[in-house]
Every structure is written in structure tokens, then in C-alpha cells.
Amino acid sequence: MLRLLLLLFCLFNALEVLRIRHQLALSEASWAAAPTAGASGATSERIYIASMHFNDGVLLRQHWIKAVLDLTEELGGGDKVFVSVFESGSWDDSKLLLGELDRELQRRGVPHRVETSAVTHRDEMNRQDKGEGWIDTPRHRRRLRRIPYLARLRNRTIQDLVDLHQKGVRFDKVLFLNDVVFTAQDAVALLATNGGAYAAACSLDFAHPPLYYDTFALRDSDGHGHVMQTWPFFGARTSRKALVNGLDAVPVASCWNGIVAMAAAPFVASPDSSLWPTGPLRFRAISDSLAAHHLEASECCLIHADNPLSRTLGVYVNPRVRVGYTLAAYQATHDRDHGLWLSVWQILRGLWLNRIKRATGFSLERLVVAHRLRRWQQERPGNDERGHFCLINEMQVLAETGWAHV
Asked: Which residues, if any, are the signal sequence (predicted)?
């Protein structure tokens, strides 16, 4: 009897892994066979590309600038795209390299703004005005919060989108590019997620595969963080089932993960429009009073909580689009095993580890966050945070060389 049960167990696992491998192979094959935007004219959309950089010289030189230039060509050139890049405070050769990008975009006739700033983190931290966006740490020091600072910079990258809209120049999608290794084909595939119908579509990002990177922003369809940092990542059945079945649109509550495509309309909404009661969409942080409870949330998660289209068109991760923070990380998630990035062992191990974690998992952090949120809500009427699912038990402040936990 025991031998029979063991045989059935092995057979079940073998069939399940083979089915998933087959689904993933079909998914990867359909992606590889899809015509590019430039070759097929598949997209008539106008794309606004936005990015910001800090000490990214090596990446810019070796990968990023070429990928952006290839992408502008792939999308149809000057009349179809706008490129907005903002850099601030770098002490490597990022400014020099972005100057070269500026000149090359100009030569190619691609509308763009490449802006560099000499303002450093130290300059920001030494400002005399230490009001909104600042916090008193447990060591009784007044420090500049990281997320309000990043939200301000991200909003700067979309200012031309707003200004051009007021002049009658319209864009369909905004493509946010992080400091990652990617190809033009990756970006085009992301734009085509779910047939182009989405509030937002995100890649998967990796710094040290097989661990995905952006745990701060990714939330499954139930609004929870991952149960594991390796495939299949999610605890929510809806997200996990779509991922395992190889779909290009895995429903989530929020994501960022390297490259993000979003519908442009919410960013340029009229403040008095009945269609957009909350006004134009902008990046933001949680309030300083909530952050004082040792809570934080990514501006890249809150943007989906605030976006009215998230509830109608949906937010998705496209697992076919995988990007890396190094070339090695990118290569490790592409064509490793007969065209698949996941081995038989990774699939088998991932399925069972996910089941075990879902069955035995208990999130103390989730309870701590919920308790602190309730305390803040009880402090005064009107205290509410629609992005409550983005909250984590951290306090993050700006540092001279980056940022720090306190």
C-alpha cells in the first residue's frame, strides 16, 4: 500500500511538472514568435517613456542607452514617442553618458528631455525647511524620508506628459524604465500585455536569480506580499494560477518590478472631471503622521491604489518579460533549459514549497502593520490610507550615498 501511494505521488508530481513545463514552453514560444511593433505596425499607440537615474554609469554605458535608442526606433521614431530622463546627484559618469543620449536623441529627431541636476542627497538633507516629508527617527533626529523624495522625482519625469497634453499632444501609454538590463523587444512585449488592455503591466525583475527583486511594490491579487521570493511567488490563488499556467497577464494588486507600462489618461485627467473624481494621478508617499508609526509604503505601490483604472482594467505582471539589474541576472532568466528559464527541479520545488508556506505561513509583520494602522486611524477623524495593502514595517530615510533603514 505504501509503495502504491509513493508511486501515485511520484506520478502526480511528474504529470504536474510536465503540464506546467508544456504550458510555459507554449507561452515562451508564442512570445518569441510574436512580430515586433516596428515590423508589424502592431501598435498605433503613442508612448511616453520616463526614467530617472542615480549613479547608473556602468549600466547606462553597457546596456541601457542602447536599449532605449533601439526602443524608440522599434516604436516608430519621433512621431510616436517622447523620452523623459531625470538624473540627480550622481558622482559617477551618469551625467556625461546621459548628455550623449541627449545629443543622439536630438540627432534622430526624437522628442525628449534629458535633465541632469547637481543637487546631491547631502544638499537635500541639509535643506532648512524640514517640514512635510521629514520625520523624527527613534534616535530623535529629523531626517528626510526616502519615499516623498522619490515620489517628487518620479512626478518630475512625467511633467512633460502633462505639459504636452495641455498643448494637444496626446499619449496612450506611459512606459516607466528603471535602471535595468532590457531589450526593445522586452518593452514592446510588455506594452502588448493582455492585448494592451490594462491599467498597468509590469515585468519581473531580478538582481540575484532565482529571487525576484522588487518585494516593496509587488502585491498579489489579495493585496498580500509574496509567500516566497522564488517561483511561483504568490499566495493568492488567482495570481498563482495565472502564473503557473503561463499567462502573460497575472492579476496583482500592485507591481513595479523594473519596467512598467501604464495607461496615460489618469495622469492627464482634468482636476474637475467627473470621470476622475480624485484628480490627476501622481506619485505620492503615505502621510508623515502614518510614517511616524514606523510604517512605510512604496510610491510605486501607492500609485496603483490611487489609480481608478486599477479596479476596472486591472494591474498585471507579465512573467514573459524578465529584466535584470545586471547582465548576469538578465541572462540567468532567459533560455536556460531548452528555451525555458525554469528547470524541472525549480518547478517541482517551487510548487511544494509554496504549498507548505501557504499551509503553515503566519505573518507576524502583517499583524504588526494592521495594529499600527488602526492606532493611526483612531488618532483623528479622516485618517485613512487607501493603499493600506502597500504598508510595511519599516522607516526609510535618505542617506548621502542612497538610503537607510532607521
From this structure: 1-17
